[in-house]
Amino acid sequence: MLSLPKQELKGHFTMLPMDEVHFGSGSLDNLSAELEKQGVSRAVIITGNTLAQKTNLVDKVAAAAGNKCAGVFHETSQHVPRRTVIAAAEYAREREADALISFGGGTPNDTTKAALICLAEGITEPAGLDQYMIKFTYPDKVEIPSLTNDPIPMFAIPTTLSAGEFTYFVGVTDEERKVKDLYVDRRITAKAVILDPDLTMETPERLWLGTGMRAVDHCIEAMCSSTSQPFIDALAYRALNMLARHLRETKADPGDAAARAQCMVAAWMSVCGLANVTLGLSHGIGHQLGARCNVPHGETSAVMMPHVMAFNRAVTTTRQAWAAEAMGVDIAGMSEEEAATAAADEVAKLVREDMDLPWRLRDVGVTHEDFPGIATDALEDIIVAGNPRQVTSEDEVIDLLHKAW
């Protein structure tokens, strides 16, 4: 195994403020008991139109909640525009909800967390969210507001691999500015998460695999972080190894529930320490590709990751070589530089050949005319400020976008 350079250890680690995680087939059966633990009697499920109208899975979740389901809001929208957050919060108010259950992918999950903010703070109009978003001026001026009231409890049942249900931050798109803003508060963390692979069988293949690449992105940017920690290194390394194997297995056999469960646990591992490390350009550019160009987050990672790895290689050579090892590349006999290059090549192979996902910006509807706006917004994203190699200008971002186009 590749040895990492010794580093002086000094820092701080924040645990997820979460009570329970249930994983494996049949885990949904634990929902009613988890609601009872929190004294919930009127839970509203927040999900998407496809799950609600084209499957019977929402009915299964409602049944698993026992007599505690007060309604289903299914008008969520990709990249979480403010208007749908306000609508979800209003729906929950009308039904006197004392808890929210997110069911689906990152969109229902983030909509739910943002609705918690609106319910706690009495926000009824999109502009009301301005007061609670992170305000950042590049490179280091940041303001992170806190909620003034405790939100009602949230429970999460994911059907994809983006793993946002394990975080206490949320991205919401301001439709007028075409920018995704970030919100952070530990109290919007789910009380319990249920990882049931049986509920993912209806998830479209491209969405499943795309969000799997998002989890891969979590691992690599965490491993290469300038604020890396051994505890997170261990989780990310093992998660990356699991994802590289089991994503391929679910591509070959979509009905393999055991492989799906492995992917879900790996996605959890990929994200549960991210509040403790800085990430970088792949995540930061991805936020703005989503808000401005409506590109799914998993596909932003699939497209941008190899190019960001190349951009950062000179300052993360050893750690990228370690990522290659985690993905199963035989690095014996390679120099660190060769192994680091092999890591980005392996990611590109996973995306293009094994997963058959989009791998260029042109394939996901991004045009050259979009580049200046993406670059401007990226430099206003606090995540970009933490990139291992300092980003000094919009031109550097635009050059990276050209390489990914």
Write the layout of secondary structure elements.
Elements: E1 20-23, H1 31-37, E2 43-46, H2 49-54, H3 57-64, E3 69-73, H4 82-94, E4 99-104, H5 106-121, E5 135-137, E6 141-143, E7 154-158, E8 169-174, E9 179-184, E10 192-195, H6 205-223, H7 230-252, H8 257-271, H9 281-293, H10 297-312, H11 317-326, H12 336-354, H13 371-378, H14 382-385, H15 394-404
Parallel strand pairs: 1-10, 2-3, 2-4, 4-7, 7-10
Antiparallel strand pairs: 5-6, 8-9
Helix pairs in contact: 4-5, 6-7, 6-8, 6-10, 7-8, 7-11, 9-10, 9-13, 10-12, 10-15, 11-12, 13-15
Keywords:
single chain; alpha/beta; Rossmann fold; Dehydroquinate synthase-like, alpha domain; 2 domains; six-stranded parallel beta sheet; two-stranded antiparallel ribbon
Summarize, please.
This protein has 405 residues and is α/β, with parallel strands linked by helices.
Question: Can you give a write-up of this model?
Answer:
With 405 residues, this protein is an alpha/beta fold. It folds into two domains: 20-200, Rossmann fold (3-Layer(aba) Sandwich), CATH 3.40.50; 205-404, Dehydroquinate synthase-like, alpha domain (Up-down Bundle), CATH 1.20.1090. Helix content is 46%, strand content 11%. The chain has helices at 31-37, 49-54, 57-64, 82-94, 106-121, 205-223, 230-252, 257-271, 281-293, 297-312, 317-326, 336-354, 371-378, 382-385, 394-404, and strands at residues 20-23, 43-46, 69-73, 99-104, 135-137, 141-143, 154-158, 169-174, 179-184, 192-195. The strands form three sheets. A six-stranded parallel sheet has the order 1-10-7-4-2-3, with helices on both faces. A two-stranded antiparallel ribbon has the order 5-6. The protein has a two-stranded antiparallel sheet with strand order 8-9. Strand 8 (169-174) and strand 9 form a beta hairpin. Helix 10 crosses helix 15 (394-404). The longest helix is centred in the middle third of the chain and has 23 residues, at 230-252. The protein is globular, with a radius of gyration of 20 Å. It starts with 19 loop residues before the first strand and ends with a helix.
